[in-house]
Every structure is written in structure tokens, then in C-alpha cells.
């Protein structure tokens, strides 16, 4: 029996906005006239995030990261279908929350862009989404062993890490890709109010209220999975962060995570970073 997000029931009312709320948010953004610098900064951070995730090994030739469009919360920004390490500003495409490209101009789209629109529809608090195939997380997605925080940098996992079973939504013979709105919605429901969801036989998604937070969570989820597997492999009893430790560490990390982002962006954010 597959694991389910333990917070899904208690958080459902707070993470599922109505279409009216999204429309109102979009109208507010439009009337406010989001300054061009905010959009430019979002593009700059999105390009840097692609390079950082590639350098840190969270993504390789596959995987992607998006950001909610600061000009309109009913849209998001995502690169065209390409290797993240090679993304430039000219590769960024605008999508609506139905995952339709609004300015593709011949540029191809990621097959799994549906992950992003679905999460943005269900989670108004989320402003950035990372999808990764990091191999370290796969054993926890494919087994009965739950991914749990073993050190403070991954304390955000203390909210629970649900596992998406694509067979429940696509049947027993899918190609394992979240390549439709229906599958994106199923994944978003599994994520619920959590910060990370694993995908059986596939990878993970990590979300944040801003790009640096989503990148931070994607990287430290991968590292926590690596450390937890090592700790289990030692053969003794593994001590995980308890709920109070996880909450306290998460609050601290949210205040200091820009330290890591600023370093990563300086060292790895450029197009020539390898």
C-alpha cells in the first residue's frame, strides 16, 4: 500500500484556491502594473537556477525549474525543452496555468511542463517549482522506506514526503512521464501541502515561495536521501530530526538560505558555468 501525504486532509482547505481567487490575484497584479525590473530579476534568477541545479547535480540533461510570472500569478515562466545548463534568457517561455505556451514562437516545450501549471493552480503560496530525476531519491520513492530529515539542512522534509504513484492515475503501462493536465493534477494532489514529493520510478518535485528556496530544497532533498541511505547502511539505529527540531531548523534556514543562493549564483549562475 503506497504512502500518502499525512497532511493532505488538514491542509486541503488552505492549499486549494478557487478559480475566482486566481482571477482576482491576476487582476490585482495587472492593475498594479508589476515593474519591469521584477520581471527581469525573475528571468535572471530562473536562468541562474537552471545552471546552479545542473552544477550541483540535481539535474543533468533532464529536469527543469520554473517561476510564477511576477506580472501575472496566473502564468509561469519555464525554459524551452533543453538541457538546464544551457538555458539563457532568450530560451524562457511564458505559460498559462493550463500549460499552454503563450509566446513559444517555434520553441518546443518540455513534455512534463504539466507538473508546473498543476502545482501553481493548487498552491497559491508556491512561486517556484523544481522537477529532478536525482537518483539518490529513487530508492525512497520505490521502497517502503520513507524519506525523513536526518540533518538540519533538510529539516523542511519534516512536513512529510508523499510519494506519487503514477499507476494510480495512468494505469499500469504509462511511460512514467507527467505529460498531461490530468497527471499533473494527480501529482499536485499528492504533493498537497508538503514541500517535496517523490515520484515512484522517476524522481521528485520541490517547491518554494521563491526560486532560491525551491533550489535549496531540491538540493538538500537529494543530499538528505544520500545521507539517510548511508546511515541506514551502517546497520544501526538511525535518529531522525523530531518535529520540534524540524520546525525550529526550518525557521532558521528560511532566514539564512540566501547565503547559499548568493554563493551558488556567483559561482555557478553564468551560462559558461560547468
Shape: globular
Q: Report the average pLDDT across residues.
A: 89
Q: Please indicate the count of domains.
A: 1
Largest sheet: 7 strands, mixed
Strand order of the largest sheet: 3-2-1-4-7-6-5
Just name the CATH architecture. Answer: 3-Layer(aba) Sandwich
What's the level 1 CATH class? Alpha Beta
CATH superfamily: Class II aldolase/adducin N-terminal domain
Specify Rg, calculated over alpha carbons. Answer: 18 Å
Helix percent band: 40-55%
For the termini, the CA-CA separation is 42 Å
Quaternary organisation: single chain
Beta strands, count: 7
Q: How are helices and strands ordered from N to C?
A: HHHEEEHEHEHHEEHH
Low-pLDDT parts are: 1-32
DSSP summary: helix tally: 9
Helix and strand content put the structural class at alpha+beta
Model description:
The chain has 274 residues and is of the alpha+beta class. It has one domain: L-fuculose-1-phosphate Aldolase (3-Layer(aba) Sandwich), CATH 3.40.225.10. It is 44% helix and 12% strand. It is built from nine helices and seven strands. It has helices spanning 8-15, 19-32, 36-55, 114-122, 138-142, 167-170, 181-191, 211-233, 243-268; strands at residues 64-68, 75-79, 92-96, 128-132, 163-164, 196-199, 203-208. A seven-stranded mixed sheet has the order 3-2-1-4-7-6-5, with helices on both faces. The protein is globular and about 55 Å long. The protein starts with 7 loop residues before the first helix and ends in a 6-residue tail after the last helix. The model is unreliable at 1-32 (pLDDT under 50).
